[in-house]
What does this fold into?
Amino acid sequence: MTIVVKLFVLKGASKLDENGLVKVTPELLVEGLEHVYAIGDCCNTDQEKMAAHAQNQGESVCRNIALALAGSEKRPYKPSESTTYKSSACGDHR
Ligand SMILES: Cc1cc2nc3c(=O)[nH]c(=O)nc-3n(C[C@H](O)[C@H](O)[C@H](O)COP(=O)(O)OP(=O)(O)OC[C@H]3O[C@@H](n4cnc5c(N)ncnc54)[C@H](O)[C@@H]3O)c2cc1C
It folds into this structure.
């Protein structure tokens, strides 16, 4: 299931940074919201805007939702080494 929160809603609630990106916590929660996550190009992680990162972020959010449902602590998102490799392979670190 995909939930799209219109950016103007987040803007009105000061959830966007100066570049118009959604401000997220290390767990990829939208800052100040308990159950709303943001992943991919729209969020203000310091990673490059790449599909590989978006996919890894999605997997991290799925794990955190499962942990939350089990009553456990959410974990910060950690970029995987394979993602770094994919970025290099795309020529982003020249
Ligand atoms: C030319 C180009 C080449 C690229 N090459 C690579 C590459 O080689 N490797 C790589 O890893 N990444 C690459 N990227 C980056 C990659 O495409 C993005 O990082 C990735 O698609 C981000 O995924 P996303 O889900 O965050 O956003 P998107 O893929 O942009 O998906 C957002 C979706 O939300 C939909 N949407 C928007 N607003 C609404 C709304 N209000 N209601 C409902 N739906 C809405 C859009 O139609 C879209 O389908 C490239 C990007 C570009 C532009």
